[in-house]
Design goal:
Strand order of the largest sheet: 1-5-4-3-6-2
Oligomer: single chain
Strand content: 15-25%
Helix content: 25-40%
Order of helices and strands: EHHHEHEEEE
Distance between the termini: 20 Å
Structural class: alpha+beta
Radius of gyration: 14 Å
């Protein structure tokens, strides 16, 4: 499993906290952090607060009409870990929901700033 510790030019938002959803969408959607930040603010995200999944879904729906959240909590994917997710989704861009965190996976490479290799995948959005 390959990890990239992704650095961000945040346009003066260095004091931002709990912005994993913004960072993940920025990387997976190939847009600037400040543009992603603006989209999340318009969708209702409060500065320095955790982002609810419905807000992330709204932003991704605006960027990629028709994209939807795929839950892995039920069925055969119930215990899907990150390594297996990458093996089964080795191409494309994804925003992946792991325990209390969102990460970007682009063509099998995990883009994260707080990598933990063994995380359970709760769901994901496939962008392309």
């Amino acid at each position: 499993m390959k990890y990239e510790r992704t650095a961000y030019a945040d346009g003066g938002l260095a004091s931002e906290a709990k912005d994993c959803s913004i960072r993940a969408v920025s990387v997976a959607a190939c847009i600037d952090y400040s543009e992603a930040y603006r989209l999340f603010a318009v969708a209702g995200r409060k500065p320095k607060k955790s982002t609810q999944l419905h807000i992330t879904s709204a932003v991704l729906g605006q960027l990629f009409p028709g994209v939807s959240y795929h839950t892995t909590f039920w069925g055969w994917e119930k215990n899907l870990n990150l390594a297996r997710f990458i093996r089964e989704h080795s191409t494309g861009h994804y925003v992946v929901h792991v325990s209390q965190h969102l990460i970007a996976i682009c063509d099998g490479v995990v883009h994260d700033w707080n990598p933990k290799q063994y995380r359970r995948v709760f769901g994901y959005w496939q962008l392309c």
